[in-house]
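Q: Give me a backbone?
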Amino acid sequence: MQYIVLDLEWNQPVSYASAAYRKVGENLLFEVIQIGAAKVNERMELVDTISVLICPTHYLTIHPRVKRMTGITQELICDAPHFAEGANSFLDWCGEDAVCLTWGGDDISVFQQNMDFFGVERKLPPMYDLQRLYAAERGKSGQVALKTAMEELEIQPEEDRAFHNAMHDAYYTARVWQKLPHPEKVLDYEEHAKKLSHNERRVRFRATETVPSVTAALESDKLRAPRCPTCGQMTSLKTELIPQAPGKFIALCQCKHHGTLFLKAHFAKLPDGQVGMHLSILPANKQSRAYLHTKELQYQYKRKRGDYDNVDWNDLSAALSTNMPFEDM
């Protein structure tokens, strides 16, 4: 038997109000743009890897977050095969006697939805969840990030294998599996595809304090001159407070002693009617700076277009909603 450690990268609609999403709806919530895998034999030897880039046919614009995390651009995949051809190439590579292992169940659900949507009638190999095995073997509860598992098992990232590349993540997942004491027990954790849905779900919110209103908080020293979490000194904002989603704002601020910090403020209406705020300030890394820069450019463009002319920042009716699109069958 061959064990295929599988990972996917996928694109998504830039907006759920976009023409591309309205055309296909929940039939194709995510469109696969890379299939990556590592092949492990019965002696637990990693014998091969594969990367199949896929040209999307519906979500043609690569979502900014996807582009930033994966490095996959439209130019990189414009000449790649479409999903049906890419999926068949991958399944041919897997061979007849194979099972697939993934880190969590999301890849399975996305892969199956793409198979159904694009009319690929071949069956996927049986699927098993390595993340659940890892949690059981290490006495963990809940989900564990792949990077965390690597750190705990002292697996060092390799210079030429960046994260959020499907083939590299599959390789790292295989390395984690090889180091578990009972790798064969992964077959106890069979996973099945879930139905993907755009239904909104509620998210948890923990207020660190209450404020009179969102607008009052945005004008207060708490957010205009936030204190450094390390030294307690007041910092200065390097950017505007940029709206990220209903009730959510982000910014960069500068501490004279501890450099650039990434600020996130989340507001929600509490059960007693008061407005709660959760404020977090952490050191800014390259990724958070790039993310904020993208959001800042989007905000400036939308503001010039007039999108924020009549926005009521105190309206928190949608502040505890999310569009996480997974729903059990």
